[in-house]
Every structure is written in C-alpha cells, then in structure tokens.
Specification:
Blueprint lengths: L1 E3 L22 E4 L18 E4 L2 E4 H7 L2 E8 L2 E8 L8 E2 L4 H10 L29 H6 L16 H11 L5 H4 L16 H15 L3 H11 L6 E4 L12 E3 L1 H13 L1 E2 L2 E2 L3 H8 L26 E2 L6 E6 L3 E6 L4 E7 L6 H24 L1
Parallel strand pairs: 1-6
Antiparallel strand pairs: 2-8, 3-4, 5-6, 5-15, 7-9, 8-9, 10-11, 12-13, 13-14, 14-15
Helix pairs in contact: 2-6, 8-9
Length: about 375
C-alpha cells in the first residue's frame, strides 16, 4: 500500500467526506461482518495511460487532477493495487454520496417476491393520492428513474427540492418521507429519464414495506454476508429513515465488495442476489437510457440501469457513481473492480461534469492496466 502526500497547492475538502458521523446529527453504525474476510493480496505497480480532457496523461496525473482520496483495484477477488491520498487511510469510512443508490439496488434485488411492475402505492399506500406524483409509478420506474415526477436535482441551490430533501439528515430536523408524498406529477411515467434522489427514497420505502427491515438492518445482513472488514455508517433523519440515496460511508476496501457482488450476485460461490437481477440492474432498459443518451449535463459516457450506471448497452461494465467523484466500477466479464473516491469541488457545475466524464474514460483504462500488470 502506498500513501501519497497531499499537494499543498490543492486544498480538497476531504473532511466533509470522511467519517461523516462527525458532521451528520443522526447516524447508525452497521457492524462489520461477524467473520471478516480480508481481501487476498497480490499487490503490484499499476501503470495506465488515460486519454481525455484534451490530452493523454498517466495514472498519477489523472489521480491528482481529479482530487483522488483512494484507489483500490480488485482482480478476480484479489487486491492488486491500493493507494490513499490527502491524509485518508484504509480505516476511514468514506461517504459514497449517490454510490449509496447502487447498494440500495442490491438490497432490492435481495427481495424474492418483489413485483417490480406493481405500482409503488401497492406497497406504500401513502402514495395513493391524486396530487402525489408517485401515484401511478411502478417499482420499475423508481429503479430506472423514469417516474416523470416534477423534479430538478440541484444540490447547489439550498432552496431547491433536492437540497430540502436531504436537509433532515444534514440538520437533524424534520422528516424525509413527509416530503415525498408532496412531490407533484410531471411527465408520463416510463417515457423519460430525470435523475431524482426522491425516486431512490421512495424505492427504499417500498423495500422497507416489502421486507419489514429498515435500511441499516437490511444492509447489515448484506455486510455480514460479504465479509466486510470494517463497520459502515449510514445517515438518517430524526425519525430513523435512512438517506438511502446518498448517506452510506464505508472503507474503500469494503466499497469494493459491492462491485464484486454486482458481477454475478455470488460471494464465495454462494448466491446472494439472483444473477438475473445483477444482469437486469446493469443494463439500460430503454433506448433513452443507453450510454450517450442521457442529458449531457450528467455524462456523455454512461447510461442508467437499475440504480447502476452502465458504460455499454449490454451492462457488462457498470459503475456506482456518487457526487464529488465516488465510484465503484465493475468489469463484469473480466472480474475487475476499481474503487476511486475523490474530493473534487462541486460548486462549479461545468468543472464537476468534466471531472466525471474524465473518470468514465479512466476507470476502464485502469481496469485494463490491472489485467496487464
């Protein structure tokens, strides 16, 4: 394991992403596995050439340019490369922001009798109101963010619906779910994509009603199954409702376990999530969800599956993606996982988009380099 010193010219806001229970009023700790399974290790140097942002760069330049805090690479279940930056350590729980949504997708796949074509209100009767945008929405629409509700995801504006939605977790005041029933309808469900954290929170509400388990309890069972080495942390509102769209924090090594599970749903040869689910959740279900078809302000290089971001139409290469550069990339054919956490600035929307697009070009290159090393 190599640790790089922080660049004194760059002052990334690492502290807002490390050990978030210091900053979030209400959190729950998810215990490490009863029998932790450290990754087998065969570490080796990694050299990659990355083309993007108008030039070709080496791996170190890419990691520096995108404010990287950790890089962990797993090949066929073995840890082959690990680096930390800006004072981050292997024991730090790193906030995944919206990479949490991909963990939620794995939990949804763990529900044997869930009917994803059923109306969400059949599980959550509170949505059965003509004024509620989720009244005619199915679980499949929630998974693909094709609900059509009237929504704009803008966390830079503190008055926006998205910022108000997460405020109960950040401030420890109010509740999440009372806001969800007030989101109005917009377009016809199933006809368009809008990135919407509210969809994830309604999906988690459905998951909870279908299982009787809150998010932290359900995730703790998965955490135990995959042999997590460290406890995780999840933020919730004062009523105990988790921000299942963005508040999970875990070590980089443990984030990698979610990418490994997304390969085929198995862990140590044991079926954890159905293979059919990892296949379906990795693929874009509609032409307008294919890579290159999403709004360019999100990315030109990925599409959207069931809360995972495919880099190809077959869903063989997918990633979890969280604000400010949190990625869990899985090459499902070559069995390579790349975890990259970051602390890039978020205020400049144009720069944020450029960092993200560069990462979508770089993650496959890093995976390829790991196979060659």
């Amino acid at each position: 394991m190599a640790t790089a010193p922080a660049d004194p010219r760059i002052r990334p806001d690492v502290e807002s992403l490390r050990e978030p229970q210091r900053l979030i009023p209400c959190t729950t700790e998810i215990p490490r596995a009863a029998a932790p399974q450290p990754w087998p290790r065969a570490e080796r140097p990694l050299s990659a050439r990355i083309t993007g942002a108008g030039r070709t760069m080496d791996l170190d330049e890419f990691l520096d340019l995108t404010f990287t805090t950790s890089l962990v690479v797993i090949v066929d279940g073995t840890l082959v490369h690990e680096r930390y930056f800006h004072g981050v350590t292997p024991e730090d729980r790193l906030l995944g922001n919206s990479a949490t949504k991909s963990a939620l997708a794995l939990l949804v796949g763990d529900i044997p009798d869930l009917d994803i074509d059923a109306p969400a209100r059949s599980y959550v009767p509170e949505l059965d109101d003509p004024a509620c945008g989720y009244r005619e929405v199915t679980v499949r629409h929630l998974l693909a963010m094709t609900t059509g509700v009237d929504w704009a995801e803008d966390h830079r504006d503190p008055a926006s619906p998205a910022a108000r939605l997460v405020a109960p977790v950040r401030e420890g005041k109010g509740g999440i779910r009372e806001q969800l029933t007030r989101i109005p309808p917009g377009r016809t469900p199933g006809t368009s994509f809008t990135y919407c954290t509210a969809d994830s929170l309604v999906l988690d509400w459905v998951r909870e009603r279908a299982t009787g388990l809150d998010f932290a309890t359900h995730l703790s069972r998965l955490w135990d199954t995959v042999g997590a080495e460290h406890p995780a942390v999840v933020g919730h509102d004062p009523h105990g409702v988790a921000m299942a769209g963005g508040s999970l924090a875990a070590t980089a090594r443990d984030w990698a376990r979610l990418g490994q599970l997304q390969m085929d749903g198995t862990w140590d040869g044991r079926a954890v999530v159905p293979r059919a689910w990892t296949d379906t959740s990795s693929r874009p279900g509609e032409p307008f969800l294919h890579p290159g078809r999403l709004p360019v302000t999100i990315t030109a290089h990925a599409g959207f599956g069931h809360h995972w971001w495919p880099l190809d139409t077959t869903g063989r290469r997918v990633t979890a993606d969280g604000m400010r550069g949190q990625f869990v990339y899985a090459d499902r054919d070559r069995r390579v996982v790349v975890v990259k956490t970051s602390a890039w600035p978020h205020a400049d929307a144009w720069a944020d988009m450029q960092y993200r697009d560069l990462c979508y070009l770089a993650l496959p290159a890093v995976a390829e380099a790991a196979l060659r090393a």
